Amino acid sequence: MRDFTTSLIDLVLGRSCAGCDEPGLLICQDCKQALQPRIRLRRDLDVSDLMEGLRIPVICALDYRGTTRQVLYRYKDHRIRQLAIFLRPALAESITFAAHHVGIELRQALLTPLPTRRSSIRRRGFDSTAHLVQSAAPLTGTAGMRHLLADVRKHGAAKHVGAFEREQRAIDAFRVRKEGSLPTQPVILVDDIVTTGATVKEAAETLLVAGVQVVAVAAVAGTP
Ligand SMILES: [Zn+2]
Q1: pLDDT tens string 94-145
Q2: How far, in Å, from the CA of 159 to the mean position of ligand 1?
Q3: How far apart are the CA of 172 and the centre of ligand 1, in A?
Q4: How many angstroms does the Cα of residue 49 sit away from the middle of ligand 1?
């Protein structure tokens, strides 16, 4: 077995597959196949306490496990930005399905990324979610991407916290950015991975309270 540094260099140089470590391409054919979108409606976010009867669908293109999990991890934590090329078809499909599902035209829809934690941006040197949304946007025919939310979370990384704690931490996690006027067209909130849904719910609620018409959440992957 090769040491970690060697395989990391191989990855960065695209000498082995980010999904399975097979020598050769950055993504092998089998892993490329595994990243083919299999769209599903994961759940509805119940925001009826803000607006009577309002539910926001959460669409995922892939299950967060196996190859998908590995490639997302390497994209984000190994900072292999080029992997966005292999993840964006799934995200574009998720966005497209979300628009159809809620009955809006794609060209009307504005995409807004779920803000990445500032500490994660510092660590990775790039905003992994925004980079992915920006990369997928041209494949969707939507009105493009705009940052509408800012991250105001104070706690550390949320990797190893339980569902309850995650939900508590999601409260007051975001604020609406002050730059520019708020959009009047429908907005699709976009994230890379949806787990409990608490974070996207908080983000959606922050936007709704400000008067932004959030119609759906689209993600690359969701926990099965
Ligand atoms: Zn592979």
Answers
A1: 999 999 999 999 999 999 999 999 999 999 999 999 999 999 999 999 999 9
A2: 25
A3: 39
A4: 45
Distance 66 CA to ligand 1 centre (A): 11
What confidence tens digit (pLDDT) does each residue in 55-97 have? 999 999 999 999 999 999 999 999 999 999 999 999 999 999 9
Q: How far is the CA of 29 from the centre of ligand 1 (A)?
A: 7
CA 110 / ligand 1 centre spacing (Å): 33
Q: How far is the CA of 140 from the centre of ligand 1 (A)?
A: 26
Q: pTM of the prediction?
A: 0.88
Centre of ligand 1 from the C-alpha of residue 121, in Å: 27
3-state secondary structure the chain: CCCHHHHHHHHHCCCECCCCCCECCCCCHHHHHHCCCCCEEEEEEECCCCCCCCEEEEEEEEECCHHHHHHHHHHHHCCCHHHHHHHHHHHHHHHHHHHHHHCCCHHHCEEEECCCCHHHHHHHCCCHHHHHHHHHHHHCCCCCECCCEEECCCCCCCCCCCHHHHHHHHCCCEEECCCCCCCCCCEEEEEEEECCCHHHHHHHHHHHHCCCCEEEEEEEEECC
pLDDT at 42 over 60: yes
